[in-house]
Amino acid sequence: MIDTPGWVRDAVFYQIFPDRFAASERVAKPGPLESWDAPPTIDGFKGGDLLGVAERLPYLAELGITALYLTPIFASASNHRYHTYDYLRVDPLLGGDPALRELLDAAHARGMRVILDGVFNHTGRGFWPFHHVLETGAASPYVDWFHFDRRALEAGRRPLAYPDTGRTIQASDAPGGAGALEDGRFGRSFGELGYQAWWDLPALPKLNTDNPAVREYLFGVAEHWIRFGIDGWRLDVPGEIDDPPFWRTFRDRVRAANPEAYIVGELWEESQDWLRGDRFDAVMHYPLAQAILGFAAGSHLDRETVARHHEYGRRVRTLDGPGFASELGRILGLYDPAVVDVQLNLLGSHDTPRFRTLCSGDLDAVRLAILLQATLPGAPCVYYGDEIGLEGGNDPDCRRAFPWDERRWEGGLRAFTAAAFALRHAEPALRAGPVAIVDARGDAVAFAREREGRRFVVAINAGESPMTLELPSGTVDPLPRSTVRLLSELDGWTVELVALPDGGSRLRLPGRAGAVLGPPPAAA
Fold first, then answer.
1. pLDDT for 287-325, tens place per residue?
2. How many CA atoms lie within 13 A of 67 on its CB side?
């Protein structure tokens, strides 16, 4: 049975990279930091922390945010903290466990939920069981927690955790290259380092999740933080643990601790097998993000930046109105409606170039994408700073520090984003229920959403020239009761809606514009 948490359907998420969002003066830093406004580097720390997030909750509430997704916060020797060395301790640079306690209490007092990033496929080199093997070799009782070359250990050769090549061993692009065992499970790292490292990166030893002790440890970590008060988990590269019983047990243990916990996986492709009710509630909806990008960007798509991305380069293509309508219908039809309604609908993340950059800086494309995000089923997720027009290329440039000087913001974009989410919060029809394509031609599309007798039409023209769409009889309420509920005041989008003798309507949209048509607010 598919049982997804109802609160997610109504949520608007905000993804925060804690080191880069906001720094509090209440969190002492142990030494010098990289300048907040300097371009980000691979290893540099900016000094953002969890109390900084807590202090900025009023800003997020004004934007319409009701849930936070934090990238990893546990103790780690990397600014992104995907190199965990202590799963049961919040990184002291972020304020430690007390800072998470304050953030959770402040967020929950506002009705906001908080989910954390769980990195359970691999650890950092500083993780104590791995360090134990580095110190004691084959005699360590933790030797089976990872994939070590046992013959090398028993011969007295210690793992080469810090090779002279530094960050990588300049090996294959993925596990399974030269030096792999016959079954292809291990990459060059196994032969050259003495252990399997995720994607052959020495800093990321891969856990042996077939080991019952490892499984129990990870399940205990998941339960611990749920009991601490978090509202769910975003799971990093779960496809690398291609073990359905592992994830079924993970779900059972988490849901036993909190029946409303949200479990969302980082899977970049279609994921029907993962979303049948026994593992995850949802995935990060990259297929939808890619379709929106290909449509909303239109001729402004930055093809060079797209081509340099490891996933987008293979998947993103430009879409006209009919193409987007077809892809939208296909994507939404892949899953049970209860799953569709809680998918994490992002436009970008810490693993992609900024959406605005992918659109060559075009703000109209960003607004059109936000309008789609706010009116399609699934929970919108804003990557921190996208609402003010932050730009950035591939990692690490997409992880710039948030500029708190409002003079550097695209204020009109932030206002538009807040208006779009306010409309979504006000109208249940925009949060759940089917999507019906009304018309699609040229570079434009219109779709309808209806619930409890309230019907809305969302129309988008991603082309440069005006476009006319035909709305059949019954699509919108008879004029003049039908009203345009959301337009961009920044660029003065205007639409023409003309009643036809057959009861239908003709909608004319200017280029690079969108609108939501529907009844006046229920309270009016």
1. 999 999 999 999 999 999 999 999 999 999 999 999 999
2. 23
Is beta strand 379-383 parallel, antiparallel or unpaired with respect to 13-16?
Answer: parallel
Q: Quick check: helix, strand or coil at residue 337?
A: helix
Residue 453 — very low, low, confident or very high, per pLDDT cuts 50/70/90?
confident
Q: Sort residue 120 into left (φ over 0), alpha (ψ -120 to 50) or beta.
A: alpha
pTM (predicted TM-score): 0.95
183 annotated active-site? no
For the chain, what is the mean pLDDT? 93
Tokens at residue 515, please? 């609108």
> Is a pLDDT exceeding 50 seen at residue 181?
no
CA atoms within 13 A on the CB side of 6: 1
Task: Provide the pLDDT for residue 492.
Answer: 64
The DSSP H or E segment spanning 219 is helix 212-228
Which of the following is catalytic: 231, 266, 362, 443?
A: 266
The runs of H, that is alpha helices, within 278-400 are: 286-296, 303-307, 312-315, 321-332, 337-340, 355-358, 363-375
100-108 long-range contacts, CB within 8 A, separation 24+: 100/50, 100/73, 100/228, 101/228, 101/229, 102/50, 102/51, 102/54, 103/50, 103/51, 103/53, 103/54, 104/228, 104/229, 104/230, 105/229, 106/54, 106/57, 107/54, 107/57, 107/68, 108/229
Q: pLDDT value at position 179?
A: 33
Using CA atoms, how far apart are residues 258 and 453, in angstroms rounded to an integer? 34
Q: Are 425 and 63 in contact (CB under 8 A)?
A: no
Catalytic residue among 102, 192, 236, 302: 236
d(Cα 97, Cα 20) in Å, to the nearest integer? 19
**Between β-strands 467-471 and 262-265, what pairing exists: parallel, antiparallel or unpaired?**
unpaired
Q: Decide: 332 and 342 in contact? Cβ < 8 Å.
A: no
Are the C-beta atoms of 119 and 73 separated by less than 8 Å?
no
450 is catalytic: no
Q: How far apart are the first and last CA of the chain?
A: 40
Torsional sign, CA 315, 357, 353, 8: negative
